[in-house]
Amino acid sequence: MIWHDEAGALRFGPDRRGLRVKLDLLITNAHLLDPGSGLDRHDSCIGVLQGRIVGVGDAIAELDAHHRVDIEGATVLPGLYDSHVHTTSFGLGLSMLDLSEVTGMEPLLDAVAAYARSLAPDAWVIGAGYGLGLDVGTNPSRAQLDAAADGRPVWLTHFSGHLCVLSSAALAEVG
How does pLDDT run across 158-167, given as a tens digit for each residue? Predict the structure, then answer.
């Protein structure tokens, strides 16, 4: 049961005074699906009060509500379900040295060196997408990046978006 206590706070569980809160919205006939938890329930209900989901399932099906909506079996997913794509990083990567098709450490370092030569003397070498053409767990070392970029700051982001490697000059600049 959902109810207000004497201070006006929402409470869950038995209401010793026999009073019940009227839901703002009761969504019925929903297919609840949450791949993260494994929930997959048909013909279910969702109770909403003050902008928050306060209950799901049969336990709230008979509660009063200001509005009832039958969604006719439509699927409901968590509101902030993260499919975990790095769209911002992908977009930024389009303006960087593309290392996604480089296979092998020497070709990767050659690409860094060629790109470094094309930049102004004080510009950073910023690249993205390295790693697909390397053995698992293999990354360019700081010393390799220092040599390839002739001492300039280098920052390369792994294709996974969860790792980056930096040259000595880059580490010195970022502290």
Answer: 988 889 999 9
Q: Residue 137 corresponds to which tokens in the numbers above? A: 């767990």
Q: Cα(132)–Cα(80) distance, rounded to whole angstroms?
A: 30
User: Amino acid identity of 137?
Assistant: G
* Dist. CA 156–CA 135, nearest whole Å: 16
What ranges make up the beta strands (E) of 84-153? 97-98, 125-130
Cα 65-10-71 angle, rounded to 5 deg: 30
How do beta strands 65-70 and 164-166 pair?
A: unpaired
pTM of the model as a whole: 0.54
pLDDT at 17: 56
Q: Which residues lie closer than 8 Å to 164 by C-beta, 6 or more apart? A: 155, 156, 157, 158
Q: Where do the H-state alpha helices sit in 5-104? A: 87-93
